[in-house]
Design goal:
mainly alpha, two-stranded antiparallel sheet, about 70% helix, about 5% strand, globular, disordered C terminus
């Protein structure tokens, strides 16, 4: 029996499964509600990740339906998925009782870590060449995400503080690693890639929020 298994969706699925398992088992209470939230969030994240890919590569907007499987193939942008996940989290948090934050941020880091291994094995954005050596930028990001997982697993914070820390740290990491990624196809504007500009926006926004929080704390 011949099995034709694509590496990218395989590791993507493993990453989602491991991250989801960590999130569900981080607290065994409200498993049903957490599962409903997870399914809704994953669906919206996939839609936004694919949409960001099409936006960043508009020339592929038509061809994407022909040169790869639209759902199972590659062509997902993490920042798009992150935006979808944040939107879903906001909606669940505001309009339902199905949101529980314990373990969520470490789960994202863990799932993302495994997914990046799939990117590397697929040959997506290998990295720039330094002499005869190609920088394994996806593996470097995977290892960095694993360290972030252990950091957030051990360091318990209020959910909003945890989100702010995660966004700031990942954006700073992504900004630095983009210099070694060499992914010119998704846009280079004023010497920075699309992901770097998004990272800069996140870092500035998180810095402003942190400053406002600090000033309000001093006044109180």
């Amino acid at each position: 029996m011949n099995l034709d298994v694509s590496i990218y969706p395989l590791f993507f699925g493993i990453g989602c499964g491991v991250g989801l398992s960590y999130y569900l088992l981080s607290s065994k209470d409200h498993l049903k509600e957490k599962l409903i939230y997870s399914i809704g969030t994953l669906a919206l994240s996939l839609i936004c990740a694919k949409a960001f890919f099409i936006i960043s590569l508009p020339s592929y907007a038509y061809a994407i339906f022909h040169y790869m499987s639209f759902i199972n193939g590659g062509g997902y942008v993490f920042y798009g998925g992150l935006l979808g996940g944040m939107l879903s989290t906001y909606l669940f948090k505001k309009y339902s009782n199905n949101f529980y934050s314990n373990g969520l941020i470490p789960a994202i880091c863990l799932g993302h870590c495994i997914g990046r291994i799939g990117c590397y094995l697929t040959g997506c954005c290998f990295g720039i060449k330094l002499g005869d050596w190609v920088v394994p930028v996806q593996l470097v990001e995977s290892a960095s995400l694993l360290m972030l997982f252990f950091y957030f697993h051990k360091k318990k914070q209020k959910f909003l503080d945890e989100v702010h820390s995660y966004l700031f740290l990942y954006a700073a990491l992504r900004f630095f690693l983009e210099f070694f990624r060499g992914d010119i196809h998704r846009g280079i504007y004023l010497s920075f890639s699309t992901s770097q500009w998004i990272s800069v926006a996140i870092i500035l926004f998180m810095s402003i929020i942190s400053k406002k929080t600090f000033l309000n704390f001093k006044k109180s």
